[in-house]
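Two records follow; treat each independently.
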Amino acid sequence: MDASNRSQSEPDGTQHPPVTPGLRKPNRRWTPLPIPTIPTPPPNADNYRPQMPHSLPSAAPPVAPAPSDFSHTQERLRQPKQTAAEKLAEKFCAMEELLKEWPFDTVGDFLQILFYNPTRSEPDLRGTTHASAVSQFLRGRTSVRMCDILPLMYYHRASYPSSQAVNSHEQDLRFSTSIEPERILHARPFISTWAVRLVAAEARKQVGRMANKSSDEDEHQNQLRASTNGRRETKVVTWNDLLANFNMNRIHELFGLRMPLPIFLTEAMAAPKSNGVYFVRKRRPHPMIQVGALASFIISRNRYANAPLAMVFGVFFFACKVHIDVKRVFCRLGYSVADSTARDALVSATAADFVVLRTTVADAEEREVTEGFMILDNCQEYADVWEQGIGRQSQLKVGTAGTYVWADDVAPGAFDAKPYYDNVAKKERMDLTTDSLFDDIQWPHIRRVIPLHWTRVLVEFYTGFEPLLDGINKMFRTAPVALHRMREGRKTRCQPLGTNSEHSTELQGMARAVEDFDQQIGIKTHEAGKQLHWIRGDGASFANLHNLSTYMAPLYNFKNKISTPEIWHTGATDLNSTAANHYGPATSRDPSSLSRCSNVAGFKRPSNVKSCDYYPTVRNFTLIWTAHVLDCWRIFFGVDDLQKYLDDLAARKTLPDLPVVKRRINSVGG
């Protein structure tokens, strides 16, 4: 072999690779490679063949290796994989050695240095590795986070004192509100007490924000001013604040956004839970209870923070004529404002909204459109004199109350006066007969609505049909059953007018009452404009208004006034007519008479069928009609017991679904 290709060796026997001519020798020294010791083949190794490292696995069953005399001297380069228990034991051993040798006095001393947090004015004595490690851990960027460490500390057996410990009294200090956390030694009662202080401070802070005055541009005001002294421009309460913006569900959502911690705490205290999930009861729903409690907390912090609930309750108590002692009790509890504040709020709201009302009506007159209509009715109140005196006696106070209501979604030209006068001049009502009224009824629509009501009765009767109720309600709200439905979210805007002392049951009293209301609104009564003014009321008010428009037409007084009976009064009149025609004798045995049905159902028969109490009579009629409809369903199914028949269908899981119910509707409707 040539000398240039021979291996070179050091005096200590270290071998180097051969040097190739023309190549530069590297600057670094080569790491010596281990030379394996090749054992001598045994005498019985004639058929020995070493297994190739990249040979494919064979499909044949493995053959047990023959005993070999080879001696392997090369050590394993990779350690075997440790189990979780071995890793944990190794870490515990390392921890034991670390605690024996570290320079800290206690674990607390170590943790205090580890989580050292210098202020901006203090020098940071921590090293880069120290600061980075703590920062990564506190930011949750490590595999083990604070959510894993804190429960270990809180639930550790040593964090809670035993009954035989010297400080066993600390067992009763968990979530303590009277002991300072620094005086508690054990970790579990300390952490809970410290957390109570932290949560209480944050809850107080959030409630305090709701008690402060919000900006005038804020949609949700925290404070509603009932009056102002005029020295400073202050926004006072309006009817829009008291009526349109008041919604308990909306207030609950607002509280959840602006003070989520008190909402969370009160929900945990008030809400019922099933399978770990809160649910809302139909009676006494906990969101309403939360709103009432938190609203009283807010007004307790600031007596002017009455917007959520207190101002509305004060006006509500005034409208219901609640006794003054009841008002004082609820004011004391923080649920209502004082009675004087509620009265000032009513005066301020009426004065502020009257300005808006008159401006709106004047603008509508210029544009020759109608913005709303008026509802009026007579009112009476008997004023008793409880303390007798000279010139003092009980008396009946009589007057007329009115309300202006804004009309929404009105078609253009709907209240133009000229088409109305032209139709009146044609005198087409002279040809009006009972048959023509009968022909004007939309009978196809009636045939769609009545069977749907019958099906609703069946669905509400049996609990197994409860999943179908939403579909039935949706059919009522959509075409072709719903002909003209108000848009979703619409709320009626109204403006109460000042009550006068006129007798609306008299013709002259009605004239003076209407003139007073027109003056409040800003309408010129004695001028015939191009728009009709719609007034609604009960039967007597309708008759007087009709006579006024007839008698005063030549003088252009009340010429543009048109009146219709109010819906409730129309329904009450029809109810009295039905009762007078179908009740029959009180002791009637006719099963089709309302008297017989009322006696069976346990309802009291009206003493005067021509003037019934509205709501008890309506409940009576509804129950009797429902019973008759269910009996018709029993005949339709051909069974004797409707409840048992439906229970059998439910047991066989053959209750009809909504498409089948729709077909039944068509069959019932004929």
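The next record belongs to a different protein.
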Amino acid sequence: MAIRFTVPPLTRALLVSTVLLSLLYGFVKYNLWMSFKDSSRPDQYQAVPWITIVPSGSLYYPWVFATATLVEGNIFTLLIAVNTIFHGGKYLERAWGSKDFGKFLLVVSIVPNLTTVLLYTLWFALTGNTELASTTWISGGWACLAGFLVAFKQLVPEHTLTVFKSPVSIRVKHLPILFVGMMTIPAIFYPRPSTTVTPFLLAWSGFLSSWTYLRFFKTFYPDISTASRPLRGDASETFSFAGFFPEPLAGPINAVATQVFDLLVSMKVCTPFSQEDVEAGNARVESGGTIGRPSGGSGARAEAERRRQLALRALDARLQGSGRQQNTVPLSGITVDNGGSHS
């Protein structure tokens, strides 16, 4: 009997890579710790520029800007990462397909890592603390976790999560800002570069980069059962930047965000949404549309289903246009063979 995997292929690869890279990092750290434990900077053993990102040394190892996201420094964060990838990755890969999920992963991995390195480099240059540039390390899946939460807000904003089987429940749409807020507090009251500031920077840059990608760049079909064209970005009002924040803050943030967006449009960095885009996005939200609801198929399967629906509509139009409606076979009696079972 063939083994049937319930975890999609890219998610499986991410899980295996996270565990193996984290174990490798732990092994290297232990050996370096034996070398540096009697030095003046015993914490330097954690800065491994070919596994994690080190501002002063990782330019020689460019692959770490993608792979450092999969490297965890302790068992606690490793468990969080594995749980995030297993549940979140499985959901998103089934919703979008492996190709689109892979693009999203690249955005929420590379962009936050580069942003964090640039901010650290600027900080070290302004403070003149060049020693920290070689002892600070950047790794972990905080940016991915923030990005997954942003994606869930787009896909299932009204779903609720129960906290440890208690009466306390949280709506999915509140999770992104709650998470980045939790990452902000330790960075303010206990600012240490690699242990509190790095998660803070990764979380916020992951939040911003994932929202920007989903809001303006990712392509989706608002309804596979109609002839509606694919949309680039999500123009719905509920997915606006201000929509992530509590009501008292939403108004001022929306005013600032609008000014920034208008500036970017005037600089031709961004393209404004048309009224049709906004209406399509809002209609998708109101109807609980199919932008990312997994139904056991991939993005390619959703596209194939959309084409079949369009073919049925074209056939119906031809039959009605022939003037022989009395002999027309109703659509409910037409069966389209897609070469296999369809669930």
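Discussion point: The longest helix spans residues 98-127. How would you locate this feature using only the token line?
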